[in-house]
Amino acid sequence: MPDFTDMLSKAKEMQAKMKDAQDAIKNIEVEGEAGGNLVRVTLTGDYEIKAINISEEAKNLSRWIIPWIKKKFLHHSKYFESNEKIFLDRSESPNNHCQIENNNEVIEFLNKKGFTSYKVGQLSFEQQIHLFKNAKVIVGAHGAAFANLAFCSPATQVVEIKPIHHPNYVSKTIGKINDLKVKIIETPKYENYNINLDINELSKTL
Question: How far apart are CA 63 and CA 61, in angstroms?
Fold first, then answer.
């Protein structure tokens, strides 16, 4: 006669191993490339989209890439309550460059102008799509989050802040293809490509 207690124990053990394997697969990340390696899409093992990155060499980006990104990913947008005037807060980024030294001052100023700050890295990819699709005005320091301009509607106002000696082609190229109103604030050379933003300059640009 079979030992049902032993069989049940082995079944539970197998189930636990399968769950561990499934969890391990979820933690695997793979990248696919398009447009001559200018666009990278990161997926997890269970096909969750993690991010889209557009190379700094975006000046060579073919015009078909942005409409293709919209067609493939825009429907993944996941609604959450978000403001139409957004500030991209890079303070949570592990990268030390293009950090706004007076970030709190900038946030306080923009809050008075009706903006809400978002740490994009803390949002899911689907939420990022919604955030940019829904936005009317976007302000932020140069960074990977600007690849999400691909999801913006025409005439969205974009203010990108960057050190004067830092190259930038992503927002300009996407802005041209997507018919966005892109303005660049260039700040003086600063340590680690960081930014000390003149609030008066920001006020004049908005």
Answer: 6
Describe the strand order of the beta sheet including 39-44 as a list of residue ranges.
29-34, 39-44, 49-54
Alpha-carbon span 194 to 99, nearest angstrom: 5
User: Which residues does 189 contact at the CB level (< 8 Å), separation at least 6?
Assistant: 163, 164, 165
Radius of gyration of the chain, Cα coordinates, nearest whole angstrom:
21
Residue 199 neighbours by CB under 8 Å, 6+ apart: 102, 105, 106, 109
- Across 74-152, the runs of DSSP E, i.e. the strands, are 85-88, 116-118, 137-141
pLDDT score recorded for residue 55: 60
Closest CA to 40 of 29, 56, 51: 51
* 104-125 pLDDT tens trace: 999 999 999 999 999 998 999 8
Compute, in degrees rounded to 10, the torsion defined by CA atoms 31, 123, 132, 126: 60
Average pLDDT of every residue of the chain? 80
Rounded Cα–Cα distance for residues 100 and 33 (Å): 31
For β-strands 49-54 and 85-88, DSSP reports them as unpaired
Give tens-digit pLDDT for 43-58: 565 545 556 666 655 5
Beta bridge partners of 161: 141, 185
The DSSP string of 133-186 is HH-SEEEEESSGGGGGGGGPPTT-EEEEEEETTS---HHHHHHHHHT-EEEEEE
Q: Which tokens hold the place of 25?
A: 């697969």
Q: What is the pTM of this model?
A: 0.76
